[in-house]
Specification:
alpha/beta; 3-stranded mixed beta sheet; 160 residues; single chain; 2 domains; 41% helix; binds zinc ion; Zincin-like; globular
């Protein structure tokens, strides 16, 4: 499981499912290995599990999503070798360096604009393995309002 714990100048703990995994933010006075942090995470995960998506007819179909991936891959000039849409825990998607893309089946319930954002985010990782300047520039050029979409996607996580 992908859990990133960040210490911040804040009062409470928070948890979000980002395109790259689960991000837990904790106040500076807490140690990441503290029991309180453990408990917060397991409670949050149990909550997410309860809200796991089953199937949703409003979103795009698997075929439509696959077509989109191929279209964006062509535009970004990257190769996708395999596409899987399956249940994933606490992650929206992942991509391996050989172009094997996996998306959480929760994408089947997302609005099209967020699916596009997520696909481009994953494909951009074939060129950049971090979220540095190059990655951001590519995102700016491909999906100019990607930061807004990223916020919307992260906010969606609790409605899995
Ligand atoms: Zn990423």
């Amino acid at each position: 499981m992908n859990v990133h714990i960040q210490t911040q100048n804040r009062k409470s703990l928070s948890m979000r499912v980002t395109p790259d995994g689960l991000v837990v933010r904790i106040p500076c006075h807490l140690d990441p290995s503290d029991d309180v942090v453990d408990q917060f995470i397991s409670r949050g995960l149990a909550d997410l599990e309860k809200h796991q998506i089953s199937q949703n007819e409003d979103g795009l179909s698997r075929e439509e999503i696959q077509q989109k991936i191929l279209k964006w891959a062509k535009r970004l000039d990257v190769e996708v070798s395999r596409i899987q849409i399956r249940p994933m825990k606490w992650k929206w998607g992942s991509i391996s360096s050989n172009g094997n893309m996996t998306l959480a089946n929760a994408v089947l319930a997302l609005p099209e604009s967020l699916v596009d954002y997520l696909i481009v985010h994953e494909l951009a990782h074939l060129k950049f393995d971090n979220h540095g300047k190059g990655f951001q520039l590519l995102m700016d050029m491909t999906v100019p309002d990607w930061k807004k979409r990223e916020k919307q996607l992260v906010a969606m996580a609790w409605r899995f």
